[in-house]
C-alpha cells in the first residue's frame, strides 16, 4: 500500500473513532437533552474553529467568497442539518429506529461515492458491502429486537427524518470531496475551521426553532455550575475530539481516498461505538455482536485490499503504457 493511500485509510479510521464518541456522550449529560449537548458542542466548535483559523491566518489570505459559501453549506448539510434530522428522528421515533438507519450511512455513502466516481468495479465491492450490511444488522440486533412492530404517525415522521439524516450525510460526503477536489492545495485545518465556524453560526440561528420543537432542556436545569460537568465538559470534549478532530481527519481522508473506500472505512465507527457501549454498560458482548464486529472488520480489510489491488493494477498498466510509448515497441 502506498503512503498516500495509507495516510487516507488511517485518517478515515481516526474520523470514525472520534465520531463513535457521539454514542457515548449521552450517558454523561444527566438530565440535559441531546439537543442541549449538540447545540453547545457546535457553538464550542465554532469558537475553537476561529482559534484554529487565527493560528493559520497566513494560509487564509487566498480564501475567496466561494470558499466561505462552500464551507458554510457543508457545515449546514453535514452538521446542523444532520443534527436537526437526527434529533427529530429521536423525538418522534424513539431510541431504537434511528440508530438502525444511521448505521447504514457508511454503506449508502460508499455506494453513492462509487456511483459518482466509478473508482472500482462493483464486483470487487460486492463482498465488502455484503459483509458490512450483515455486520451492521448483527451489531444493531439487540436494539432492533426491542421494537414491537407497532407503527403510528410519530414513527413514520421519525423514520422519514432518519432517512433524511442518511441522505444529508451522504450528500455531505460527496459534496465535501468534490469541493476539495477543486481546491487541491486547501489546508485541512483551514477547511475544517471554516466548516465549524459556519456550522456554529447556523446553530445559533436554529436555537429559536429548536426551542419551539422542545429539543432543549437547559433553560429548565440552568447554565451555572450544575452545567459544567453534565453539559459544558462533554460538549467541549466532543467539540475538540469529534467535531474539530473528526472533521479534520475526514478532510484528510477525503483528499486521499475514493469515497467508496472512505465510506466503507466508516463502518469502523459502529465497531468503536459498540465497544464503548459495552464498557459503559460493563458487560461482555453477545455472540452475535462479536460476529457482527468481526464481519465489519473483515469487510473493511477486504475493501482496502480491493482498492489496493485496483491501484496496483492501474499503476502497472500506466508503467506498461509509458514503457511502450518510450520504446515505441507496442503494436
Automatic annotation (TrEMBL):
Pfam families: EamA. The chain crosses the membrane at residues 7-25, 37-56, 68-90, 96-117, 129-147, 153-176, 188-211, 231-253, 265-284, 290-307. Residues 157-301 form the EamA domain. InterPro entries: EamA_dom. Keywords: Membrane, Transmembrane, Transmembrane helix. This is DMT family transporter.
Amino acid at each position: 500500500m502506498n503512503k498516500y493511500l495509507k495516510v487516507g485509510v488511517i485518517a478515515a479510521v481516526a474520523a470514525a473513532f472520534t465520531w463513535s464518541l457521539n454514542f457515548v456522550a449521552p450517558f454523561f449529560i444527566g438530565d440535559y437533552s441531546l439537543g442541549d449537548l449538540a447545540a453547545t458542542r457546535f457553538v464550542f466548535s465554532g469558537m475553537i474553529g476561529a482559534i484554529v483559523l487565527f493560528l493559520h491566518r497566513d494560509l487564509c489570505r487566498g480564501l475567496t467568497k466561494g470558499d466561505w459559501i462552500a464551507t458554510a453549506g457543508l457545515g449546514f448539510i453535514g452538521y446542523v442539518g444532520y443534527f436537526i434530522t437526527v434529533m427529530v428522528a429521536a423525538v418522534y421515533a424513539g431510541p431504537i429506529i434511528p440508530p438502525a438507519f444511521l448505521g447504514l450511512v457508511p454503506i449508502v455513502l460508499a455506494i453513492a461515492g462509487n456511483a459518482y466516481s466509478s473508482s472500482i468495479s462493483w464486483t470487487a465491492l460486492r463482498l465488502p458491502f455484503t459483509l458490512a450490511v450483515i455486520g451492521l444488522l448483527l451489531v444493531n440486533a439487540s436494539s432492533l429486537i426491542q421494537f414491537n412492530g407497532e407503527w403510528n404517525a410519530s414513527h413514520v415522521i421519525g423514520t422519514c427524518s432518519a432517512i433524511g439524516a442518511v441522505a444529508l450525510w451522504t450528500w455531505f460526503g460527496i459534496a465535501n470531496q468534490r469541493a476539495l477536489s477543486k481546491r487541491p492545495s486547501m489546508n485541512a485545518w483551514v477547511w475544517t475551521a471554516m466548516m465549524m465556524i459556519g456550522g456554529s453560526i447556523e446553530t445559533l440561528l436554529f436555537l429559536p426553532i429548536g426551542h419551539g420543537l422542545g429539543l432543549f432542556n437547559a433553560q429548565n436545569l440552568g447554565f451555572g455550575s450544575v452545567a459544567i460537568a453534565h453539559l459544558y465538559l462533554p460538549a467541549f470534549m466532543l467539540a475538540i475530539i469529534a467535531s474539530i478532530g473528526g472533521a479534520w481527519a475526514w478532510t484528510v481522508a477525503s483528499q486521499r481516498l475514493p469515497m467508496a473506500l472512505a465510506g466503507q472505512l466508516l463502518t469502523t465507527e459502529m465497531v468503536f461505538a459498540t465497544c464503548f457501549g459495552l464498557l459503559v454498560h460493563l458487560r461482555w458482548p453477545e455472540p452475535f455482536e462479536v460476529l457482527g464486529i468481526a464481519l465489519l472488520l473483515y469487510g473493511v480489510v477486504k475493501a482496502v485490499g480491493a482498492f489496493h489491488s485496483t491501484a496496483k493494477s492501474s499503476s502497472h498498466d500506466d508503467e506498461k503504457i509509458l514503457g511502450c510509448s518510450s520504446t515505441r515497441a507496442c503494436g
